[in-house]
Amino acid sequence: MYSGPVAANGYSKLAIDGQPDVCIILGPNHTGIGSGLSIQTEGAWETPIGVTRVDSDLAKRIQKSSSLIDVDEGAHASEHSIEVQLPFLQFLFKETIEFVPICMMMQDLTTSREVAKTIVENTKGKNVAIIASSDFTHYEPQADANRKDREAIDAILKLDDEQLNELGESNHVTMCGYGPITTLIAAAKMLGNVKAELLAYKTSGDITGDKSAVVGYSSLAFTRN
Length: 225
What we know:
This protein has one domain (4-224): Protocatechuate 4,5-dioxygenase, Chain B, CATH 3.40.830.10. 41% of the residues lie in helices and 25% in strands. The protein has helices at residues 4-17, 56-64, 74-77, 86-93, 109-122, 142-157, 161-169, 178-191, 204-208, and strands at 22-28, 37-39, 44-47, 50-54, 70-71, 98-104, 128-132, 138-140, 194-203, 214-224. The relative contact order is 0.19.
């Protein structure tokens, strides 16, 4: 009820753009279970509205070409950051879309750039959508969340992966998935000719009316000219 209406703005943009060959979904590891970087290379994920298969060929190529990413299904078993994106994809593309899930416990700048490089090198010639899943500020007053989240959004719009990483690592902006977003920015810069735009920003306080301790949500789209 909080993040869904905001995320829908991004998926509306994707719907207009058309179905990609595959979606790579990057999300943070909230549970602390599994390896530092965890990928699933086979199988499918089921939600109440459908089944989405893992692009096994692409997932295996990404994993084999990286010295950091491990095959670890256990890291995904109780983690919500990636799975909450699937109903949107299933609504748009039914069961015809495939995806690659990468769960990031390690979110430092070097790691994020290395994951981005691996993704870019292994998706040449494919129409790929990269999705980064994260909340923004956690449980701070609305005014503070708005101000800090604006700093993070400005860094994303400038495609400044270093600044966003610093905001996340320093805990200045309490984003759970600054690493996935940093990875997306780094990949965009490697691909070149990419711009970012802000589609929507809200907090949980905008829904509940309680603005004493809110969580921030934002939807941004990266497009190639």
